[in-house]
């Protein structure tokens, strides 16, 4: 099986039947529009990467090396793994440092921070985040990932569910989700990759 790293992963799906697995196919549905253009690049606006630098939120353009300050991170808020909602103008999600179970959002258009949802028992202190198709996925210190369904404006959590727990098996228990990447699957469900 080409590209498969273990039996539980399937990198061999070929949605368009062209003989090239989705993992390396730049146009999974063979409609002539690349997946990057069609689906966007999870976590950033094409041509811009968003990250935390000290107390600033930085937008970095890898095409020309330019950095721009998108906003300031106030005391009591952390962005650990930056999750960006490009569907709603580049909203940026993080969490409060106390309680670490409260998710927050920064709106670059207004410069305002807003509480999104509090999930009792969650601890987002060092987990990563990723936004996909109306859902915010956040890693938890307890090696869990929460799926938070967002309101139409992207600023309120409608509901949350435990997306996965101890995803990598007992040998990884107690580790934090250091990074999360999520993208579209063939059947419309997200495909989630994580690193600890």
Q: Label the overall shape.
A: globular
Q: Report the biggest beta sheet as strand number plus sense, adding barrel if it closes.
A: 4 strands, antiparallel
Which ranges are low-confidence, i.e. pLDDT below 50, for 5 or more consecutive residues? 1-9, 41-45, 167-173
Distance between the termini: 25 Å
Query: What is the rounded Rg?
Result: 17 Å
Strand order, main sheet: write it out. 4-5-6-7
Structural class: mainly beta
Strand and helix order: HEEEEEEEEEEEEE
Descriptive notes:
With 196 residues, the protein is mostly beta strands. The chain has 1 helix and 13 strands. Strands 4-5-6-7 form a 4-stranded antiparallel sheet, with no helix packed on it. The two termini are 25 Å apart. Mean pLDDT is 74; it is low at 1-9, 41-45 and 167-173.
Compact summary:
With 196 residues, the chain is mainly β. The chain is built from 1 helix and 13 strands. A 4-stranded antiparallel sheet has the order 4-5-6-7, with no helix packed on it. A 4-stranded antiparallel sheet has the order 8-9-10-11, with no helix packed on it.
Topology (SSEs and partners):
Blueprint: H1 35-39, E1 49-53, E2 56-61, E3 66-72, E4 77-85, E5 91-96, E6 102-107, E7 112-118, E8 129-132, E9 135-139, E10 144-150, E11 157-165, E12 179-184, E13 190-195
Antiparallel strand pairs: 1-2, 2-3, 4-5, 5-6, 6-7, 8-9, 9-10, 10-11, 12-13
Based on the model shown, name its key terms.
globular, 196 residues, 13 strands
